Amino acid sequence: MLISATAIYVAIFTVVFLLMASSTVVITQQQHVKIISTFGRFSSVRKSGLSFKAPWPFQAASENFSLKIREISEDVNVKSSDNAFVLVPIRVQFCVDENTAQDAFYKLNNPEGQIRSYVVNQVRSTASSLSFNQLFQARDTFEDGVEGTLTEKMSGFGFRIENVLVDDPQPSEDLRQAFDRVIASERLKEAAINEGEAAKTLSIAKSKAEGEAMNIKAEAYASFRKKVAEGNAEALQAFVGSTGLSASAGLDFFTSINEMEALRDAASAGGSVVFVTAAAKETKDASTMGMIAAGQQESAPAKKRMPRKSVSSLQKP
User: Fold this and answer.
1) H or E element: which one contains 76?
2) Percent of the chain with pLDDT over 90
3) Summary mean pLDDT of the chain
4) For residue 71, what are the β-bridge partners?
5) What is the mean pLDDT of the segment spanning 212-219?
6) Is 31 left (phi over 0), alpha (psi -120 to 50) or beta?
7) Is the separation of the CB atoms in 159 and 94 below 8 Å?
8) Residue-wise burial string across 40-63, b where 16 or more C-beta atoms lie within 10 A, e elsewhere
9) Where is region (Disordered) located (predicted)?
10) Beta strands 32-38; 65-66: pairing state
């Protein structure tokens, strides 16, 4: 059976109507937007959810345009003010600003490449005024400088900078080895200084201890000599009083006794030759006199003196 022309027209109209009706529906995913254009000209931004627009071909909707945070990493090779080459690792987190998403969609084709260019220029400009040691203390300086530059430049393209992270600079292998040698030499120098101070402290403490020991020994020796002197004085006084000798003779006697004891001790060892000088005679004489005086004092009887008779008593009557 032949289909009439009217039925064909109705079918075509129905298909076209359905297609145009379906094109009015705009479904946008979460954390995305869609750009609506009217005859190729920007019209509006549709956020996540369900919305409607004029049918195609009057208005068209773009694909889902992501608002998610993206991250790019860049290792920037920089030269310090003292001609040291290091790598500065930097990570930049950014996203499309929902309020100016049309600028990000239309104005910038390669945002990652543009951000890398700004990062490299800013980091190298900052590093050129810093020394090698200052680079390791300038993380905040790099972060603030890069974030400020990117915020100023990229906001005009519809992007928002969320965060800038700067890791520790990475020196080259040769520079790292040289720096390690410098640190090692400084540590050795500090160790040598500490060892010298320890030896100095130990020597001072030892000297103080020896000085205190010598003082104690000297005090003990002085006390000993004092006791000996007091004993000798008492012995000499008793000897002089009992013998009737003079103090000088008594002192010579005790000196001779000491010399004879020294000769006796030297001769008792055996195999020794003892030379006696001419002074020994004086010593012997003093010793002999002392011993004679002492012997006489001890052995002489206490004789009773007889009364003397007068001449007249001896005459006969």
Assistant:
1) strand 70-79
2) 24
3) 79
4) 93
5) 86
6) left
7) yes
8) eeebbbbeeeebebebeeebbbee
9) 293-317
10) antiparallel
Question: Which residue has 């030379």 as its token pair?
Answer: 275
Look-up of token digits 């509006």:
44
Type of residue at 172: S
The dihedral formed by the CA atoms of 214, 219, 221 and 225, expressed in degrees to the nearest 10: 160
pLDDT at residue 230, rounded to an integer: 79
In this structure, are residues 28 and 51 in contact, taking their beta carbons and an 8 Å threshold? yes
Q: Which of 94, 158, 149, 97 is nearest to 122 (CA)?
A: 149
Burial class (CB in 10 A: 0-12, 13-18, 19+), 158: buried
pTM of the model: 0.52
Annotate 165-199 with b (16+ C-beta within 10 A) or e (fewer): ebeebebeeeeeeeeeeeeeeeeeeeeeeeeeeee
Coil vs helix vs strand at 135: helix
- Give the closest residue to 135 by CA, choosing from 86, 182, 184, 180: 86
**Is residue 95 a contact partner of residue 70, using CB atoms and an 8 Å limit?**
yes
> Any idea which residue has 């309020």 for tokens?
99
Mean pLDDT of 104-111: 90
Please tell me the predicted confidence (pLDDT) of residue 308: 40
